[in-house]
Amino acid sequence: MDFEEKTINRKEIFKGHIFTVAVDDVELPNGLGQSKRELIFHNGGVGVLAITPEDKIILVKQYRKAIEATSIEIPAGKLEVGEAGGEAAAALRELEEETGYTSPKLTLLHDFYSAIGFCNERLRLYMADNLVKVENPRPQDEDEVIELMEVTLAEALDLIASGEICDAKTIMAIQHLQIIRK
After folding, report:
1. 8 A C-beta contact, residue 29 and residue 7
2. 169: alpha, beta or left, given left = phi > 0 and alpha = psi -120 to 50?
3. What is the total count of domains within the chain?
4. Of all helices (H) and strands (E), which one includes residue 177?
5. Residues 21, 13: contact at Cβ < 8 Å?
6. Long-range contact list for 76-85, CB < 8 A, 24+ apart?
7. Of 4, 68, 135, 142, which is the active-site residue?
8. Residue 142 has pLDDT above 90, yes or no
9. Which residue from 51, 84, 90, 181 has the least number of CB within 10 angstroms?
10. Residues 149 and 72 in one domain
């Protein structure tokens, strides 16, 4: 069966600094007619499962306007324009800006899409388990207010179980660590 939906027309609704919203008219496969698809196009992002020399996971606590709540997450951020193909460098930038650490080596854990039903945001999830403190780290983004937490794997799993960690990339990273440590 042919699953491809062919775009007949695309109407851009909004173009912002982070994403673009469009509505596509599509031809459905196998002569099933036409439909509309509301889509979000995003440059993508990176996240880092950062593990200190003391075997603690570094988490970032910050307010997330989209959910009107404080969230606990791994260090992460969006790709800036022109960073496509340089995701590891972007991950190291975010790690340093948010935590004051860097790492001589990143391990790619997962390369995935966050919400493929309507968004093309692609995330690269890395692990840095050989952190080095940066003497003069890059400054945090001016509009970012964060608090760092260092927790054990068991404490992180408890935060997931209690619902305090509800961010998908963070849950994936922590559960990945749980699997490889068994």
Report:
1. no
2. alpha
3. 2
4. helix 168-181
5. yes
6. 76/45, 76/46, 76/47, 76/48, 76/123, 76/169, 77/45, 77/46, 78/18, 78/42, 78/43, 78/44, 78/45, 79/43, 79/44, 79/45, 79/46, 80/43, 81/43, 83/43, 84/43, 84/44
7. 142
8. no
9. 181
10. yes
Strand residues in 52-106 grouped as ranges (E): 57-64, 69-73, 76-78, 101-102
Q: Tell me the one-letter amino acid at 171.
A: I
pLDDT (tens digit, 9 = 90+) per residue, 38-88? Answer: 999 999 999 999 999 999 999 999 999 999 999 999 999 999 877 778 999
> What average pLDDT does range 134-145 have in this prediction?
82
| CA 124 distance to own-chain centroid | 7
Can you name the residues that pair with 126 across neighbouring β-strands? 48, 108
Domain match, 87 and 156 both: yes
Domain match, 130 and 109 both: yes
CATH number at residue 144: 3.90.79.10
142 is catalytic: yes
Which single residue is written with the structure tokens 């890059």? 138
- Which is nearest to 146 in space by CA: 71, 74, 60? 60
